[in-house]
Amino acid sequence: MSDQHRDKPQRRERRTSKALSDGSHGFRGKETTGRTKDSISTVSYIDELGHNDDNARMFTTMENTYQLGPNKRFPIPAVTDILKDVLTSYLQQEKYEAEWSQKMTKTICEVIRARVKDLMIPRYKTVVLVHIGQLAGQSMQISSRCLWDASNDTFTSYSFKNSSLFGLASVYAVYFE
User: In whole angstroms, what is the distance from residue 143 CA to residue 134 CA?
Assistant: First the structure.
């Protein structure tokens, strides 16, 4: 091999190291008069993987299955039984209080979501909504709107009442293609 070919990578290395040492971090900016000036780059935040494991998510790439429909349908009767059981057990002996019901809606949502996840229904995304209100002779209308495929997506809901409050829980199941 000739000397020119051997020297080429060394010359390239020298050129890049020289260019980086000329300016601050290798960045060059232009002034309005046409002369170049050194610019300073700063980093305000760096999140290194491993230091903040709570925020770091590992993404798994999966191959396409080309599956357009579910192998197993969403079990509406089983989920309705879960809603009935959870609402009855959490709200049976309770009296309505505004602050308590704010905390209880979150708790009930988490319990319902966990129990529906335990059914291990593949490829369905679930949305859980819980409403708790006071029974004082008023009426209330709750509506929802969704964009979904009517052949695969579904929902179920259950309503509970006692002497001082009502509870409404809904689970929406959206098939993930």
Answer: 18
